[in-house]
Amino acid sequence: MLLKLEAGRVQDLAENIVSRYCHVEIDAAYIVYNEFKSVIQQRLVVERLLPILKLGIPEIAGAVEPTKEEIEGAAEAAASAGISIEPADTAEADEEARKFGTAQVDYIYEESAEELFNGLLPQYIFSMLYHAMTESVAAEHAARMTPWIRQPTTPPT
């Protein structure tokens, strides 16, 4: 069953996590999700949301990669279903992306650092949660596209 990803529900979840963390009801928050890597490959990821050690750097607490046999089986199944598994050429998009965010800029803020942090923390957690959930949705759709080839089982003797 596919669940609809609703931004409002994710925002409520983010605010709840931040509130519980700030009121010391929890001392850490993690999210476990399926990371979409390709149509035939996903991986299970455990990522720490709070406490934040370094902004903008996801802290992966654990990941489970598929085995070589699972990847090969999925590739065979995808090929037999007519699904291309060749990676897309992203060189041009990668070059454009490198142009952004490289300049050193100093900003002056009217609000105190505490007020800014209190306002931005729920949005930061929201973006991390929403990213993880969209990865899981993409991984689920990919898994549904790829038919798995079942290996014949040998009856017990």
- Beta-strand percentage? 15-25%
Main sheet overview: 3 strands, antiparallel
Total strand segments: 3
Average residue-wise pLDDT: 80
List the uncertain runs: none
Reading the helices and strands in chain order gives HEEEHHH
Shape, per Cα inertia axes: globular
Coarse structural class: alpha+beta
Strand order of the largest sheet: 1-2-3
What would you report as the Rg, rounded to the nearest angstrom?
21 Å
The portion of residues assigned to helices is 40-55%
- The tally of helices reads 4
Our measurement of the CA-to-CA distance between the termini, rounded to an integer number of angstroms, reads: 38 Å
Relevant terms:
157 residues, alpha+beta, three-stranded antiparallel sheet, 4 helices, 3 strands, globular
Overview of this protein structure:
The chain is an alpha+beta fold. It is 45% helix and 17% strand. It is built from 4 helices and 3 strands. A hairpin with an 8-residue loop joins strand 2 and strand 3. Helix 1 crosses helix 4. The chain starts with 6 loop residues before the first helix and ends in a 12-residue tail after the last helix.
Summarize the topology:
Blueprint (H helix, E strand, L loop, with lengths): L6 H16 L6 E10 L2 E10 L8 E6 L3 H13 L10 H8 L14 H33 L12
Helix pairs in contact: 1-4
